[in-house]
Amino acid sequence: MRGRSWAVRSVAAAILLAAPQARAQMRLFDTGLGSDTLQGAAPYGNPIRDNRVYAHGIFNQLEGRFGDGAYFRWSGQAWVGNDYNKLWLKSEGRYNAERRGRVSDGDHELLYDRPITTFFDLQAGMRYDLDDRTGRTWAALGVQGLAIGFWNVEATMYASDSGHYALRTDASYDLYLTQRLILQPQFETNWYTKLDRSRGVGAGLSDIDMGLRLRYDVYRKFSPYIGVAYQRFFGGTLNLRRAEGRDPDDLRFLVGIRTWF
């Protein structure tokens, strides 16, 4: 009898000691924290919260360009959405303090984004050119993603309300010299189907804008950089620039900041 009573008391003590831990584990599973999806409800396990809404923004270029005169250039983009549906906002342009504070080469895009492959998204929406020249509205359709060799690439086609068509391509690559020191080559082209004097562009290849930037990640969200940028104009755009007394090419030293949130 004594042995049996001792065994009963041992089992009761073990249950009392295990009860708080069991209740804590149940609370974790009820809240979805610490749960193992393989041990969840049959046949697929516990549901995963994979449809949350996120937001992200980045300024790849916040820089001053110095050469024959100086100007400030920005280029950034932001998105909000889930893994399958996002709304993108893109903006770029130049602020010329020496030319009475004029803004040039400014365009802004609002796009719907949806993945079409593992590495590429399809984007569609509108673009509006807003600067010191005549404004123009475009419909936009393009792709953006990660190409072979880890190049970040974009290619977008545009159709305006006045029968003009355009194509823009952009590619950049992050070469990590160290964990914090990164060399980034960048290459952009712009193409147009018609002469557009009001926007200062000609038919065919309009310009090539290349840059080489060396940045240092003070921390991941804040990276100052230095570099050089070279822009070359072609065809009808070159003729329009010459008529305005401007050079056919533009080589500049630059200093800037890359930041994201």
Automatic annotation (TrEMBL):
Entry's Gene Ontology BP terms: intracellular copper ion homeostasis
Name of a matching Pfam family: CopB
Keywords (A to Z) from UniProt: Signal
A single Gene Ontology CC term: cell outer membrane
Entry superkingdom: Bacteria
Coiled coil: none
InterPro entries linked: Cu-R_B_prcur (IPR007939)
A single MF term (Gene Ontology): copper ion binding
Signal peptide boundaries: 1-24
Name the record gives this protein: Copper resistance protein B
